């Protein structure tokens, strides 16, 4: 009851309460039938209140203050409720994020959705039907019909056939990367036989330059270089062996599946002779080449980076995908989970990568040297050296060793003299 401005309102409340009690106790709606004697007293009391100076303003002020106080409390409660609701929503959002991360970290049978499988590069090859064209005689091959259909769809007509001078230049540059000589151009122009074009193609495909021309594109995929690149760029003195293997494979028209197997697992393939075994070992240079940070002092880190580089090279060359992106997380664009990356990494991690065939420092990470078979340098059908030829060769080798030792002494003397004299 604290806060009332005076005692007069209590009297008002008391009288009103008396009236209510009186009316309820009579059991009638008005309470005036059996208590007539009380009515004059009540009326007189009300008149007395009316004649008195009733504190109306004080009550209104008090009510207004209480109302403002109550509204303030309600507003404060609303603020607390809003704050609580925001905290609940924040906790719920955090819970959902945590559950999403937890679900993402759980092993999944497959992250490949049906939409991923339907991506154009993952679809199985299909044989489309040849399109209808208005001039079927123009097409010499089924591919020509597709070209002609595309031209007709755009309202274009084929260009005139190239002259024989242009045709031979195109073939030479495309197949061997070299221009034809004037004599070769003249010979082709004067050749009126129906098979002149096919004969020229066969001749260029038989050229050793064909392997050089086509092989360079594969060497780009194999990140071929004769040094390691990066900070130190150590030399790879035996890299030319892999280069020649690629060129020879193209010139020999090695089947592509065999070409792939030899480069990934050549050291495990059976061989008919030492030369073939050596070729298989050299083919695995595909895995040994590539940029490497030889100043890395952490051996484990170097090995993991080497595996990552091998996965990147293999996936891009043979799958057309950048699987290495999944080293730290599931692939952002291709359907490759991180688990698949480390499944591949386990295979390459179990592979021992060796460097070189000569006793020089090839790598900051110690490793044994690659040993080629004893007969790797012998060409089948070529007779061995005669005793006199071998004696002459050994004499030349001895002379070279003596010259090398003498030069080493001179170098050591010059170095010592320089250190003494500054």
Please summarize the sheet with the most strands: none
> What form results from the Cα inertia axes?
elongated
Uncertain ranges:
1-32, 356-368
What is the first-to-last residue Cα distance? 107 Å
What would you call the structural class? Answer: mainly alpha
Q: How many individual helices? A: 16
Give the beta-strand count: 0
Helix percentage range? 55-70%
Mean pLDDT: 79
Q: How would you spell out the order of helices and strands?
A: HHHHHHHHHHHHHHHH
Beta-sheet strand percentage? Answer: under 5%
**Rg from C-alpha positions?**
48 Å
Which features characterize this protein?
16 helices; 422 residues; mainly alpha
Topology:
Layout: H1 8-26, H2 38-51, H3 56-105, H4 114-117, H5 142-153, H6 164-175, H7 182-190, H8 196-205, H9 208-221, H10 239-251, H11 256-265, H12 274-283, H13 285-288, H14 299-319, H15 338-349, H16 387-421
Helix pairs in contact: 6-7, 6-8, 9-10, 11-12, 14-15
Kindly describe this structure.
There is one protein chain. The protein has 422 residues and is mainly α. Among the domains are: 8-79, no CATH class; 161-206, no CATH class; 214-382, no CATH class. Helices cover 59% and strands 0% of the residues. The protein contains 16 helices and no strands. The protein has helices at residues 8-26, 38-51, 56-105, 114-117, 142-153, 164-175, 182-190, 196-205, 208-221, 239-251, 256-265, 274-283, 285-288, 299-319, 338-349, 387-421. α6 crosses α7 and α14 crosses α15 (338-349). It is elongated and about 160 Å long.
């Amino acid at each position: 009851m604290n806060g009332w401005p005076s005692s007069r309102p209590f009297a008002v409340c008391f009288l009103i309460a008396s009236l209510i009690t009186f009316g309820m106790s009579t059991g009638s709606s008005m309470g005036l039938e059996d208590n007539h004697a009380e009515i004059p007293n009540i009326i007189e009391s009300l008149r007395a209140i009316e004649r008195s100076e009733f504190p109306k303003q004080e009550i209104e002020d008090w009510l207004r203050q209480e109302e403002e106080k109550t509204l303030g409390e309600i507003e404060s409660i609303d603020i607390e409720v809003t704050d609580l609701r925001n905290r609940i929503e924040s906790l719920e959002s955090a819970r959902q994020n945590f559950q999403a991360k937890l679900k993402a970290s759980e092993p999944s049978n497959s992250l490949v959705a049906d939409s991923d499988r339907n991506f154009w590069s993952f679809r199985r090859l299909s044989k489309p039907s040849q399109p209808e064209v208005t001039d079927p005689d123009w097409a010499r091959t089924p591919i020509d019909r597709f070209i002609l259909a595309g031209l007709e769809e755009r309202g274009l007509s084929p260009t005139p056939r190239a002259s024989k001078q242009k045709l031979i230049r195109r073939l030479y540059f495309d197949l061997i990367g070299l221009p034809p000589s004037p004599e070769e151009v003249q010979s082709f122009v004067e050749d009126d036989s129906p098979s002149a074009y096919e004969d020229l193609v066969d001749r260029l495909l038989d050229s050793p330059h064909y392997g050089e021309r086509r092989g360079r594109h594969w060497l780009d995929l194999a990140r071929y270089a004769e040094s390691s690149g990066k900070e130190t760029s150590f030399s790879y003195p035996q890299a030319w062996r892999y280069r020649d293997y690629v060129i020879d494979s193209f010139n020999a028209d090695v089947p592509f599946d065999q070409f792939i197997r030899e480069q990934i697992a050549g050291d495990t393939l059976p061989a008919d002779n030492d030369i073939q075994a050596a070729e298989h070992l050299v083919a695995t240079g595909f895995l040994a080449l590539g940029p490497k940070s030889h100043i890395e002092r952490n051996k484990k880190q170097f090995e993991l980076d080497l595996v990552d580089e091998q996965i990147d090279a293999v996936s891009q060359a043979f799958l057309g995908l950048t699987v290495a992106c999944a080293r730290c997380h599931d692939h952002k664009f291709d359907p490759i989970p991180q688990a698949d990356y480390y499944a591949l990494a386990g295979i390459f991690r179990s592979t021992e990568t060796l460097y070189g065939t000569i006793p020089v420092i090839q790598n900051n990470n110690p490793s044994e040297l690659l040993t080629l078979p004893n007969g790797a340098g012998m060409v089948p059908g070529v007779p061995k050296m005669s005793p006199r030829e071998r004696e002459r060769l050994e004499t030349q080798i001895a002379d070279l060793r003596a010259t090398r030792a003498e030069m080493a002494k001179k170098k050591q003397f010059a170095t010592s003299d320089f250190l003494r004299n500054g």
